[in-house]
Design a protein that fits this description.
The chain is of the alpha+beta class and about 350 residues long. The chain has helices spanning about 1-15, 20-30, 50-55, 140-145, 155-170, 180-190, 220-225, 235-255, 265-270, 285-295, 325-335, 335-345; strands spanning about 40-45, 85-90, 100-110, 120, 125-130, 135, 175-180, 195, 200, 210, 215, 275-280, 300-305, 310, 315-320. A 7-stranded mixed beta sheet has the order 1-12-7-2-3-4-13, with helices on both faces. Helix 4 (about 140-145) packs across helix 5, helix 6 (about 180-190) runs antiparallel to helix 7 (about 220-225) and helix 7 packs antiparallel against helix 8 (about 235-255). Residues about 20-75 have low confidence and may be disordered.
Length: about 350
């Protein structure tokens, strides 16, 4: 009897409830206006966070309290009209002290014309000023930010974001952190990733050989290639270049499968990727970010490394190349990477 009464009461009042869709959309619009940066999603990932450019539009985020009373009448924020910069961090497995470092640091520049992605790799051994630590390697900024727990992906990302923004002089609009385990899962979820290697690689970790040329890598092989720096001619710089090749191949694969325009497929890929992804959408409306990514994905990506040179004194690592880096950073800030790469073709990473 009580159950029947409750059902009848709900039926009488059901028509008074507002539609869920507009309420959810209004909440989304309100959330993105908050100044404090929010990590919208913790799902799976890949060693290269460039794929987060494609998945950042996924709207399954944790509920947040509204900050204004009139949610339904509040207009959506305008779509960004300028160039965008996304910071993608590939994080290694936790070390003996349970800490993690950013092995792959990729700045994805989307020009104002949305014509393509520019994949700019920053060496993990780039010597930069770290708050409270003096000059140290860029990859250590993640571990220092993730302390004291040493596993906080959001805090590690935020610390690295601030350092990268200071070094490059550009605003970081959004980004993500991903792990090697996620790389394996996501690569397999999309049916493998095509990567073109300029030289043969003999894995230091598995002894598996990867011939020069284009090949389809499954999850295990992709992670194996992404880890290689020992016995490579340019060491960690070669690893960065292979990371760019993998990132471009993964993005191309996702675009070919239509995931950028198919929410169900996008959701499936993210879910299959595991539990190693944190995505920061900054102040950009979620559907807008994925729309921008979809437009840029139609063009062939261009990969280029931040111009650096060896530092042969402690602390050893890389410093900015005084001849090339200033012009490159000026072009990045002014959204003129098309002109810079055309004038410096030897700095562009071969993708095919």
């Amino acid at each position: 009897m009580i159950e029947d009464d409750l059902r009848a009461a709900f039926a009488r009042h059901e028509s008074l409830a507002p539609p869920a869709g507009p309420v959810r959309a209004a909440i989304d619009r309100t959330v993105v206006r908050r100044r404090r940066r929010r990590f919208r999603l913790r799902l799976g990932g890949t060693a290269l966070a460039v794929v987060a450019t494609a998945v950042a539009g996924f709207t399954a985020m944790a509920p947040r309290p509204p900050e204004t009373a009139n949610l339904l009448t509040e207009p959506a924020p305008p779509a960004p009209t300028g160039a965008l910069n996304l910071l993608m961090l590939g994080v290694d497995a936790a070390g003996p002290d349970n800490s993690r470092r950013a092995d792959s640091i990729l700045l994805v520049h989307i020009p104002v014309d949305r014509s393509r992605f520019y994949l700019v790799s920053l060496p993990r051994d780039l010597l930069v000023p770290l708050p409270g630590r003096g000059t140290d390697k860029l990859n250590k900024s993640f571990a220092s930010g993730a302390a004291p727990a040493k596993t906080d992906l959001a805090a590690g990302y935020d610390a690295t974001r601030q350092v990268v923004s200071q070094v490059t002089g550009v605003r970081i609009d959004a980004g993500a952190v991903l792990t090697y385990q996620g790389a394996r899962e996501l690569t397999d979820a999309v049916g493998g990733v095509r990567v073109c290697l300029p030289n043969r690689i003999r894995s230091y970790h598995t002894l598996r050989a990867y011939p020069a040329g284009c090949q389809q890598l499954d999850g295990a092989a992709a992670v194996d290639v992404l880890r290689q720096r020992l016995n490579m001619p340019d060491g960690s710089l070669d690893r960065d270049r292979n990371a760019e090749r993998y990132a471009a191949g993964l993005l191309r694969r996702i675009h070919e499968q239509g995931a950028l325009t198919n929410p169900a497929l996008l959701s499936k890929l993210i879910t299959q990727a595991g539990a190693g992804l944190a995505i920061d959408t900054g102040d950009i409306f979620l559907p807008t970010l994925v729309q921008v990514a979809g437009k840029a994905a139609t063009g062939e990506p261009v990969a280029v490394g931040l111009p650096v040179r060896n530092v042969d004194r402690p602390p050893y690592g890389f410093g900015l190349d005084p001849a090339l880096a200033p012009g490159f950073l000026d072009a990045l800030r002014a959204d003129r990477l098309d002109e810079w790469t055309a004038a410096h073709p030897d700095q562009v990473v071969e993708m095919r």
